């Protein structure tokens, strides 16, 4: 059974006349009659009762007409869906992100993308940058918010946000009385940091800035999440250096303070596989660029 046979059948069923149906289909009547006979043979049923003056649908023909119309409707829908998918209007996009991206840039970009492309199923996976790189290699994610630098030939990177780090200290700490701090002011204080394997470039930059200030940081605790860093600082276990957007947590019992001079800098970038030309990725990148430009 072929699609054109279904179209021929519908024309005859609606016209109930082979001559008119043939004219409608812009073909001659004999091949039309042959195609209908072939369709009946393939189905093993009689679709029409025929006389010289009259054509009528059988019960089987009436049921087949209903189903045939649904087939054409579904086929047209499939065509439309395929065209929209090719244009990046629907589909599935797996998004990786570092937890700190939720403090500022990620919610706005995701919201804007979902408003513009509501038929795209956006699947979010929280994971540190090293895990995202592994996920890209395994094709588990399509695009990701990563902390750079990232050195991987498989990936293309687009910087979308940069911020300066700030110090976070317990409210009762004597340093909290200052308007701002220098790196030297943090000498001798116990540090709580996100462990190096989670965010290697940032960890190394903090250690480097401390050494430039004349001391090696006394790292009391390494943790996996920035939220945990802030919580342990609030508990009085130490101080830390965090992205300035962390202050959006509105955490109790801590004070966020600007660092004078050469404070650590961090960059958020979007990453994707260079060989992935999905229009969904391009739409997400366009949304991110438009939104970050409007916020500059």
In a nutshell, what does this entry contain?
With 296 residues, the protein is an alpha/beta fold.
Can you offer a commentary on this structure?
By secondary structure, this protein is α/β, with parallel strands linked by helices. The chain folds into three domains: 3-86, Orthogonal Bundle (Arc Repressor Mutant, subunit A); 91-160 and 268-295, Periplasmic binding protein-like II (D-Maltodextrin-Binding Protein, domain 2, 3-Layer(aba) Sandwich); 161-266, D-Maltodextrin-Binding Protein, domain 2. It is built from nine helices and twelve strands. It has helices at 3-15, 18-24, 29-43, 59-86, 105-116, 129-137, 200-212, 226-234, 279-295, and strands at 48-50, 55-57, 91-97, 120-126, 143-148, 155-170, 180-181, 190-194, 218-223, 240-243, 254-259, 265-273. The strands form three sheets. Strands 3, 4, 5, 6, 7, 10, 11 and 12 form an eight-stranded mixed β-sheet that branches. Strand 1 and strand 2 form a beta hairpin. The radius of gyration is 32 Å and the shape is rod-shaped.
